[in-house]
Amino acid sequence: MTSRNKIVAAIVAASTIVLIVVGVGLMWPAWVTIVVFLVCCAVGTLVSLALSRGDRRPVSEQTIVLPPPVVPEPQQVVQTAIIEGVNLASAWPDYEFIFHAVIYWRSTGVPMTTPHVRPNALATDAIIRRAARVAAAEPPDMVIRLQHRLNEVLGVVEADPSRRVEAWADQVRTALLDDDAARLRTLSNIRKNKAVWEHERRYECDRRRYLAEDVLKSTGSALVWWLSRNETDINGAVNLIGTMARLTAAAKDEDVPELFRHLLPPSVLQAAEAERSRFATIGSDGAGQPYTLDFGLFNGSRSAVDVVTALMGALNLDDEQRAQFAARVAMDIEVTGHMEAAEQVRRRFDVITDEFAADAESTSASEPAEDDVLTYTEHAEAGTSAPATQDADD
Q1: Rounded to two decimals, what is the model's pTM?
Q2: Most buried among 134, 229, 390, 394, by the most CB within 10 A?
Q3: Which of 122, 111, 3, 104 is nearest to 55 (CA)?
């Protein structure tokens, strides 16, 4: 039943119901109501049949065209080749990877004007080129990562540059030479140790800077630092004032200030006084700069050459003056009977005996008087400073 037949049936049913209600309301006889009902049903049936006949149209025959069967293309035969021990340059100079793989290749079927007699060589070269591009971006210490990357990259089927063959690779393995692997382990350990050493050095420098600039800046700052760690030991801090004064002075390469000098032990004061008495001013140059001599050089542990060298340094003599001075001193030492010491001085300063003997005779008048020499010798033995010499003009 179509939608139009359903509409007609609904209209006939509604009309019948309306006529029956009207008949009952007008009190028609029963047979009249039945006749009206039958007539309505008959009219509805006829209208439905008429509509059904109008919808019937002849169905045209349609021709079904089937697609032609698909003929499968002939499959190219896949062949294999093996690569063993091929060197691939890494991202670092002079370090190379060792490349191993199994190559699969097949012909593309594209007609070529110039055929190749060894297509497997084309496939091998194509795989090596692809692997070399990937390996050139990897450092040698990432050999395992390179192996996984090459397995992923070379697993894609790609044609060679001439489009003659298609190739891919499987079972890729990469390695390093044993010597290179050992070098890399050594370099890695050095870098790690250097990093640790740098951190330790910076830590030590920070601690030294903290001690020098904050803790040992003065005796008071050193005591405050000690009290911050021993808050209840006040007497201990008082007893350490002299020690802290010596420590802060030594940290700054200075003498203990006069304010704390009375707190030093007697032995330390005597040693400091003896150290100061070692040095004495024995003269001055034309510019007014004093010559200071360390009389500690004249003790028994020093040789004659060391003493002469110290005197030359204190007097600031040039090379020519040194030779003349050494010749005169060697002659004086020889007069006292110490022939070996005089010879050591001559050998040390390359003194020519005959030449400087004549020069010594010519300049004997300008040598200091015996009293002056004795005066300086006495002061040297006593460890005190000699009086400054006066200029010739005076």
Answers
A1: 0.45
A2: 134
A3: 3
